[in-house]
Amino acid sequence: MTLARWIGILTICALAASAAEPTYCAYEVKVSGASGAPLAKIPVGMVQRESQIASAWTDTQGMARLCDAPLHPVDIVIGMSRCGLVVVRNVKPAWPKTRQVFAIYVETPCNEFVFADHCQILLRVQDEDGQPVAGARFDGIPADKPNSHVSDTFGRIFRTVKRGERLNGQIIRDGWEPTLVSEACLPLGDQDLERKVIMRKP
Fold it and tell me: Cα(140)–Cα(43) distance, rounded to whole angstroms?
């Protein structure tokens, strides 16, 4: 085949490619960090019925393009781990326009295999009707930060207990009966414990 014929074939292919319709992308997902700067190399997925049907990575401008999408709404997921994952639910394409989705992503490691040396205990102080009791005081051991032993407007008291130790004491408030509290921070147990404390009036 002569050089002139090769050039002719290439010219025809180029013209055919230029005449083709540009690829339609259903979604453009712009991912930024907390500072607003674009994030590169962040995975972005398209999910329907809890199954991922497409994925892409953000470029240097923080942009990921998901082109081949169904006509019904999908979920857009952004992130590398289930902890801190950003999910934008029920996003419907806007053909022939490209739907733009914006997300702020901060990577949050799960630390599934890291055990803290303490437990965070949240006591929710409530009355018999389930309403929060503010101003109730924890009196017991171990001691904690100042002012952390009094329940707030949501009835919450936050305590920190070392592994292998126990929170022991009582919840006290004027006009209410004292309520005993005892929670163990086990060596290999949950590090986040949330408990309801029901207070009663005499």
Answer: 48
